[in-house]
Design brief:
By secondary structure, the chain is an all-alpha fold. It has one domain (16-199, 210-393): Growth Hormone, Chain: A (Up-down Bundle). The protein is 81% helix and 0% strand.
């Protein structure tokens, strides 16, 4: 890409990005993005239910977003390795604006499905932001940097569901229009302030196919183990997030507002662990140990969830699940980043996020089918999948960069 195609901000800041100034900006960018995403989680299942969707169709709506992410994440990853992180982030925000607007205008399931598809195709912000962090941080600080994104997830889960619940009091479509507005603000913020983090010398001269990116990752035993573990953990967790609102509605009579508060609690836990504690915990215990602790906690929480009898036990189980996922996610991303060479961070993290996207596609579909059979079955199967991810995390991880 020529310098004529870049903004003055990008040209000026390229190759001299200061992590201390970059990380807060990435944090703010992802927070705003995840607020929009957090708005959707408790609102969309019940919004679709009002349009006559079955549990399986709700699973499709929740899953199609991630199914398309699975297809496009490696593409965005290799493009960001070639052209830089900034243009891919801008493209992602533009797609979010369009997708949320169509959701707000949707009066049928096909229209809602179209909106989710557009959002899924354009959703490259997380893996691209992770690659930007990897560009600007040394390996020893990578888990802390990835924790910034996890903390942003937490804040998004705090504010997003709360905003979604409040906006739904105005109208069923109001949460989606608010999400579109936040995405437009994020686009403007990125355009004006976000520097390019990928140096010229680390840009790939040629771009190989997506299949070679997957094949290369799967040929590397430690990376393949991380991909498999991330896939299984995310599948189990996504079953919970997709079916949680329906479960609490059936068991406790919860609506959008009550579920919004529960997801906000999950977000608080994630923000504290990943934003404040993960760096110190990694320094003391190491990434792999914390990932295994995360597996144990998530498994126990999912296994206990279908047996809750009241709000108190639901809150405890939600905290356990959130704690486990908050320990697992940044440590696995950090390990994957440490395995990848500097000029392939976008591709490696894109493949990892692609596996998670496939999990978020299959998880809601599988969960919706299981929930229809019996609500408890969905969460118990999710617990088994998460437990299986721990077996893959135990594979010895070396820290040599992938080719």
């Amino acid at each position: 890409m020529s310098s004529q195609g870049k903004s003055p901000q990008s040209v000026r800041d390229q190759d001299k990005v200061n992590p201390k100034s970059l990380l807060p900006l990435i944090f703010l960018t992802v927070v705003i993005d995840l607020i929009g995403f957090g708005i959707i989680i408790p609102v969309l299942p019940l919004y679709a239910d009002r349009l006559g969707a079955s549990p399986f169709e709700i699973g499709v709506l929740m899953g199609i977003f991630s199914g398309l992410q699975f297809l496009v994440a490696p593409v965005f990853g290799r493009l960001s390795d070639r052209y830089g992180r900034r243009p891919l982030l801008l493209l992602s925000m533009l797609g979010n604006i369009i997708g949320y607007l169509i959701m707000g205008l949707a009066d049928s399931l096909p229209m809602l499905l179209l909106a989710r598809a557009i959002s899924g195709i354009s959703a490259a912000s997380i893996s691209t932001a992770q690659a930007a962090i990897a560009d600007a941080t040394p390996p020893s600080q990578r888990a802390r940097g990835m924790g910034i994104i996890g903390a942003a997830f937490g804040i998004g889960f705090i504010l997003g569901p709360l905003i979604g619940g409040l906006m739904s009091l105005i109208s069923p479509a109001a949460p989606f229009f608010f999400a579109a507005t936040s995405a437009a603000f994020n686009f403007l913020l990125l355009w004006l302030r976000f520097p390019e983090t990928l140096s010229v010398q680390n840009r790939l001269v040629s771009v190989s196919s997506d299949s070679s990116a997957w094949a290369g990752a799967l040929r590397d035993r430690p990376m393949a183990a991380l991909i498999g573990a991330y896939f299984l953990q995310t599948t189990g967790f996504s079953i919970m997030t997709a079916m949680f609102a329906l479960f609490t509605q059936e068991r406790l009579g919860f609506g959008i507002r009550e579920n919004g508060f529960i997801f906000a609690l999950i977000g608080v836990v994630a923000a504290v662990i990943q934003g404040r504690l993960i760096g110190r915990l990694v320094a003391r215990y190491g990434e792999r140990f914390l990932a295994l602790v995360g597996v144990v906690l998530t498994t126990l929480g999912l296994a206990a969830l279908p047996f809750i009898e009241g709000v108190g036990t639901l809150l405890i189980v939600s905290v356990v699940i959130s704690s486990g996922n908050s320990l697992f996610t940044p440590t696995v991303n950090a390990m994957a980043s440490q395995l990848a060479a500097a000029h392939r961070q976008g591709r490696a993290l894109g493949v990892l996020q692609s596996s998670a996207s496939l999990a978020r596609f299959l998880g809601p579909l599988f969960g919706g089918w299981l929930f229809k059979l019996h609500p408890r079955t969905a969460f118990l199967i999710g617990a088994l999948l998460v437990a299986a991810s721990g077996l893959l995390v135990r594979i010895e991880i070396n820290n040599e960069p992938c080719a």
